Amino acid sequence: STGHELVMLNEGVVLVTVPAFIGCLQDIFVNSQLVVPEEWLSDSAVNMTIGCSHRDRCQDSPCQNRGQCTNLWQSYQCRCPRPYEGQDCAEEYETARFGNEDSQSYAVFTITDDAGSDITVSLFLRTHRHAGLLLVLANSTSQYLRLWLDKGRVRVQLHNFETLTSESFINDGDIHFVSVVVDREHLVLYVANQKQGSVEVRTVDSQMGDVVYVGGLAEQKASSAFGGYFKGCIQDLRINSERLQFFRLDTTVTSYPLVLMANVTAGCAGVDSCSRNPCQNGGMCYSMWDDFTCTCPHNTAGRRCEKVKWCELAPCPAKAECRTLNQGYECFSSATFLDNSSVLSYRGNGRIQRGLASITASLRTRKRHVAILHAERGPEFVTVSVQHGLLFLELQSGEGSSTVSLSSRVGVSDGDWHSVHLFMVTPWAEVSRWTLVLDEEVDEAASSNSEGGNLDFLREGVDIQLGGLGPKAGWSLEGCLGTVEVGGIALPYYSPLEVNLPRIQEEQFLRTSPNPPRSGCSGGPVCQPSPCMNGGSCQDLWNLFNCSCEEGWTARRCERNTDTCASNPCIHGNCSIQGLAYECACEFGYTGVDCEEEVDVCENHLCAHGGTCLHGVDKYACLCAENYTGPYCNRPKLPVSVCGDAARNYICFNAGNCTERDLSCDCLPGFTGHR
Ligand SMILES: *[C@@H]1O[C@H](CO)[C@@H](O)[C@H](O)[C@H]1NC(C)=O
Ligand SMILES: *[C@@H]1O[C@H](CO)[C@@H](O)[C@H](O)[C@H]1NC(C)=O
Ligand SMILES: *[C@@H]1O[C@H](CO)[C@@H](O)[C@H](O)[C@H]1NC(C)=O
Ligand SMILES: *[C@@H]1O[C@H](CO)[C@@H](O)[C@H](O)[C@H]1NC(C)=O
Ligand SMILES: *[C@@H]1O[C@H](CO)[C@@H](O)[C@H](O)[C@H]1NC(C)=O
Ligand SMILES: *[C@@H]1O[C@H](CO)[C@@H](O)[C@H](O)[C@H]1NC(C)=O
Ligand SMILES: *[C@@H]1O[C@H](CO)[C@@H](O)[C@H](O)[C@H]1NC(C)=O
Ligand SMILES: CC(=O)N[C@H]1CO[C@H](CO)[C@@H](O)[C@@H]1O
Question: Residue 290 maps to which CATH number?
Answer without folding.
Answer: 2.10.25.10
